[in-house]
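Re-running the complex after MR caught last week's input typo. The corrected sequence lines follow. Everything else is unchanged.
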Amino acid sequence: MNTSPRHNVEGTQTIITCMAMQATKNMLKEGQKAGDATKAINSGSLEVTNLQMPIIENNVVSHKVTASHREINGEKYIRSKSDEKRRKLQLSIIKEQQEQQEKSGEEIGE
Amino acid sequence: METWQGKHFSITDPEGVNTVIYQINKTPKELLKDYPKYTVDRLDYSEELRGNMKRKTFYVDFPTQEDELLILSFAKDKVVVNTALMIDDKISISKKPMPLKFDSIYSEEEKEIKDFKYTPNLKRPICIIDPETTEEIKPTLYFDEETNEVKGKCKLKPYKSYFAFEIRDKKEN
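Corrected-run output:
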């Protein structure tokens, strides 16, 4: 490699390699020296996890239920409680929730 | 046979923590003569061990459009009370869980242990949980011949902490 700064020195060839560099946008703050770490911005939020808290998975999955069984991924599992009264309570609660939604929908419309 | 859709979701308990979850039901007007204003259902669950942690899957077999859940996490001398809302396929957990510490009473002296009875009011359901086992202390029903009524009684051990809860409206005292 020809390290001479002079061009066209007889018998040698100078290879010049260059690349384009984008202007550095980070500005040094007062008192900072070149090479000081630039400010890094974290994304997301820091959360202190209490070791005694359970970790709850956000997603809810459906399964089929009968009076005596629940069916998950094709497998049937006997339910510990089998109660017709409980089913009646569920349906009644759903009915009241729907009526309340319709009522609040009408009020908003007004 | 009638079939309907249930829901399930999972949690992971760290070592030493045992979580139980209740579904809170607000009784509709048409059934208030048969039920107290609020009832609770303890959710069935299955569990699998993952190292020294337990992954539990809780089953809501009677879901409604919007369900409120009570999450109780029992540790050695503490219970953390948390609530969650389950709507469609998502669970939203309260940002402010409430930790409760209970004192354990330990004595070097020998004491005679006697069970004592507590009669629950069946119209005002209060759940009593043994924090060591997380099992509910359920009343046994009996017929009171003097008052001609069906009553319930629970056996509670003295010098032992229990966790009890009741669901009430905010307006009530």
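None of the earlier attempt is carried over here. Chain B has one domain: 7-165. Chain B touches chain A through 50 residues (CB under 8 Å).
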